[in-house]
UniProtKB/TrEMBL annotation, chain A:
Designated name of the protein: YeeE/YedE family protein
This protein's record includes keyword Transmembrane: yes
Annotated organism of origin: Acidiphilium iwatense
Location within or outside the cell: Cell inner membrane
Keywords: Cell inner membrane, Cell membrane, Membrane, Transmembrane, Transmembrane helix, Transport
Automatic annotation (TrEMBL), chain B:
InterPro entries listed in its UniProt record: DUF6691 (IPR046513)
Lineage of origin: Bacteria, Pseudomonadati, Pseudomonadota, Alphaproteobacteria, Acetobacterales
Protein name, UniProt field: YeeE/YedE family protein
Record keywords, A-Z: Membrane, Transmembrane, Transmembrane helix
Species in which this protein is naturally found: Acidiphilium iwatense
Taxonomic superkingdom: Bacteria
Transmembrane region(s): 41-60, 81-107, 113-130
Amino acid sequence: MLLPPPVPTPFTPVLALAGGLMIGASAGLLWIGIGRIAGISGIAGGLIERAERDWRLAFVFGLLLAGLFARMLGIAPTIHLSGSVPLLAFAGLLVGCGTALGGGCTSGHGICGLSRAAPRSIVATLVFMVVAATVVFFTRTFGGS
Amino acid sequence: MRVVIAFASGLLFGAGLLVSHMADPAKVLNFLDVARRWDPSLAFVMGGGLIVTSLAFALARRRARPLVGSGFPVLPRHGITMRLTAGASLFGVGWGLIGLCPGPALVALPLDPARVAVFVIAMLAGLWGARLEQYGFKWNRAAIHKAMKLLTQTKSRA
């Protein structure tokens, strides 16, 4: 399995903070607006349930459209996604199963859970951050790229 | 109205991921690469997100119900189980391998469809498969056989 070669990226605190504020505003809008958590794994996973499918579909549609608009306007960032097809599929499966079992991802546990200081989200966020950093350390040390 | 708010929220979420460049897996992997090419940007995204979302939760606590809907659901706070930590660990492995998590994967789908689609299809299979199992669905040989049959049927039809 070919591992993604490291691509250097500059530290962009202003854009990062601006984007973060927008993500926060989105999560706030969804909670105050319709009383739902902006957790992407929960929203995408919940699409198989008939109940609540309407707003979940609308949210996912908005996410996809944001990418599509950016592409049409030519302002989208480059997506440095490398790695073989089996590796992409394997990682996707782990992310899907893991977030379904753990009940959340970077948005549901990371942004929303930490914002309401839920102990289970703090634990989950620490676990996936530390595990992911460890994986990156090992793949970049022994990955051969 | 619910659908309009959810759509606006999704659009804004996606825009935030694009502006912060979090849709680019390289940014995420370099944040996780603390020892070498550390790019702390993701911490600023989280910081910005936490400030606004915390304010929104505080504001919502003063309300009896959301703008649309009958009330706020009660969210789990505790319940730190094996399931939670095992799930978070699996997610961490997948995230660290490629640098994509569910939100950025969906936003990046129109930007690099061929590669991202592989990830997204596998992710949805994982999400939906694990959910089916939660409803009491058993992944035994008969179920897998049936699923494979369904898949091949739709393929031959297309």
